Amino acid sequence: MILPLSGKKSLKLYFLIFIFTLFIVRTDTTLTKEKKSILEILSGKFNPSEDSTYDIVPLQYATQTGLYIHGEVLMAFEEMAQAAQKNGFKIYINSAIRDFNSQKYIWESKFNGQRLVEGQDLKKTYPNEITRVLKILEYSSMPGTSRHHWGTDIDLGYNKNINQMLTNSAFESGEGLKFYSWMEKNAAKYGFCQPYKESPEKRNSNLKYGYHEEKWHWSYKPLSAKYFKIYRDQAKKLVPKGFAGSSYGENFYMDYVQNIHKDCN
């Protein structure tokens, strides 16, 4: 039996109990928030401008304003960009973090025929929706499954012509080939790898599906490898949904997530 206290001793005890209770509640809330935040990052359901973990890409390296990237990735990129400049190359970031809604806009504009893909209105060219989904997945991720959500992956180029820099042919001859060869030789020194190098069949013959090669897409392995492992472990919580055509991807979305080059594993 606890005997009641009175006076200053009673007030002091109640105050200590109150503080202890606040500490426990705050700790529980923080743990819950941290556990939730990793799923938000992996699915792109967060705003990088409201999180000090992410930095805006300086305009000297960006082809557009408002690009955000993980702070650690930006530091590594700047070091790489400075080394590239000494070797006669300028590196620009064309795309960095894309949140769920940005990816949804890209996806649905292609799915609904509002945005042409290889000059085609896919809604007309591919009236069968699952065939249309697979066509889009050659180069575009379903919302919630893109590595661009993570803040670790960037689309790079050697000039500010974004449309040109999002084609493999831009890196297969002339200045582009020299730039790409330099990246292949040096990017790993700064932590970067190419997740969609070579064809999906060459990357992983055990998986039926995968994105086509993207010579412009580079990933900061020290962070992305950790996120990749967590994504696989949490896959059941990250089933893509909430956009046109999402139901078709439920059975094969993990092939696209997992089919990356061995350099990025």
Topology record:
Layout: H1 7-43, E1 54-56, E2 68-70, H2 71-86, E3 92-95, H3 100-111, H4 122-125, H5 129-136, E4 153-157, H6 162-165, H7 174-186, E5 192-193, H8 200-203, E6 217-220, H9 221-233, H10 253-258
Antiparallel strand pairs: 1-2, 3-4, 4-6, 5-6
List keywords for this structure.
single chain; 265 residues; alpha+beta; Muramoyl-pentapeptide Carboxypeptidase, domain 2; four-stranded antiparallel β-sheet; two-stranded antiparallel sheet; 10 helices; 6 strands; 44% helix
State the share of residues found in helices, binned by percent: 40-55%
Number of domains: 1
Q: What would the average pLDDT be, to the nearest integer?
A: 89
Biggest sheet layout: 4 strands, antiparallel
**Termini separation (Å)?**
60 Å
How much of the polypeptide forms β-strand, as a percent range? 5-15%
Instruction: Note the run of SSEs as H and E.
Output: HEEHEHHHEHHEHEHH
The total of beta strands comes to 6
CATH class bucket: Alpha Beta
Note poorly predicted spans: 13-36
Q: How many whole angstroms does the radius of gyration measure?
A: 23 Å
Strand order of the largest sheet: 3-4-6-5
General shape: globular
